[in-house]
Design brief:
The protein is an alpha/beta fold. The chain has a single domain, classed as UDP-N-acetylmuramoyl-L-alanine:D-glutamate ligase, CATH 3.40.1190.20. The protein is built from eight helices and 13 strands. The chain has helices at 39-49, 66-75, 140-152, 168-171, 192-200, 240-252, 257-271, 279-282; strands spanning 3-7, 11-18, 31-37, 53-58, 79-82, 93-99, 105-108, 132-135, 157-161, 177-181, 206-211, 214-220, 223-227. Strands 5-4-1-8-9-10-11-12-13 form a nine-stranded mixed β-sheet, sandwiched between helices. Strands 3-2-6-7 form a four-stranded mixed β-sheet. Helix 1 (39-49) crosses helix 6 and helix 6 (240-252) runs antiparallel to helix 7.
Length: 284
């Protein structure tokens, strides 16, 4: 069993399956679910499901609504290292509409803007027996300290580059695996080629850019190429990127870079056949 530390955003996700909304329209959802969310959090749940032990390092707090978050993570046996256990602020809530016809989703959230923690809040033994670290960029000061600690302890670091966030430039010199979406554009980058060039400037040995249902582009130790992804009829694409990053963390500890990408793409595609971020695990 491997142990993973997942650093970043913890939200409460309210997820609806419905027709695409139009202006000034009330719509009735055909399905609904509530789960803990955020890239690092969804990744931690998936990592556990794949047979590992995960801890999510983020802000949860003591507001009554956090019981829903804690209950969901307890159900999937994910440990929580709470950076601000005494805060009574309402946790970030994401409202998500999944379009029934296409599986595409629209997300409204404030992310971790109001819940930024200090690196002084990091538990001193947080990296004990950890085999891999994933940073989603939503707790940048904490992530900055964690990656330096990980590097000092020879623990590999992956980033979930869903979108560029200021402060990533401080973390990138310590990253082993930069797994980015097609929406990840660092400063002065307009193309995928620009992104590969920018990240290579930090001596990151393994870089990949995902493109949804299109092939994954990668650069690994000067070798470039693509990895095909499964073609499916998606029911819901919510969380697919988070699940992909987590499955990558699972497989990279035992597979080559390109094999880990391919196997992670299979897991993420499978998750898209089910509504919400948990049913693909519960109904298998």
């Amino acid at each position: 069993m491997n142990r993973g530390l997942f650093v970043g955003l913890v939200t409460l996700d309210l997820i609806y399956l419905a027709d695409a909304p139009k202006n000034n329209q009330k719509i009735v959802a055909t399905d609904y679910t509530v789960a803990a969310g955020g890239p690092a959090t969804n990744a931690a749940v998936t990592f556990n499901y794949l047979g590992n032990q995960s801890t999510v390092l983020g802000v949860v707090g003591s507001h009554p609504m956090t019981q829903l978050i804690r209950g969901d993570l307890a159900n999937y046996k994910v440990a929580i290292a709470d950076l601000e256990p005494t805060t009574n602020l309402v946790p970030p809530v994401s409202s998500i509409i999944v379009t029934q016809a296409t599986g595409e989703r629209a997300v409204v959230s404030i992310n971790a803007v109001k819940t930024q923690a200090s690196s002084a809040s990091i538990p001193p033994d947080i990296l004990q027996n950890v085999d891999i670290v994933l940073i989603d960029g939503h707790q940048m000061a904490v992530g900055d300290s964690i990656v330096q600690m990980a590097k000092a302890n020879n623990i590999p670091v992956a980033i979930d580059g869903g979108s560029w966030k200021p402060g990533f430039e401080q973390i990138l010199p310590f990253v082993d695996y930069a797994i980015c979406s097609a929406n990840f554009y660092p400063p002065n980058c307009q193309t995928g080629e620009d992104v590969f060039s920018y990240l290579s400037g930090f001596d990151i040995p393994h870089i990949a850019i995902t493109h949804g249902q299109e092939p994954i582009e990668y650069l690994s130790s000067t070798k470039t190429g693509i990895v095909d992804v499964p073609q499916i009829q998606a029911v819901d694409t919510l969380g697919a990127g988070d699940i992909f990053h987590s499955a990558f963390c699972h497989y990279i500890l035992r597979q080559s870079f390109t094999d880990a990408l391919a196997l992670a793409a299979n897991i993420a595609a499978d998750s898209c056949k089910f509504f919400g971020t948990r049913r693909w695990m519960d109904l298998r």
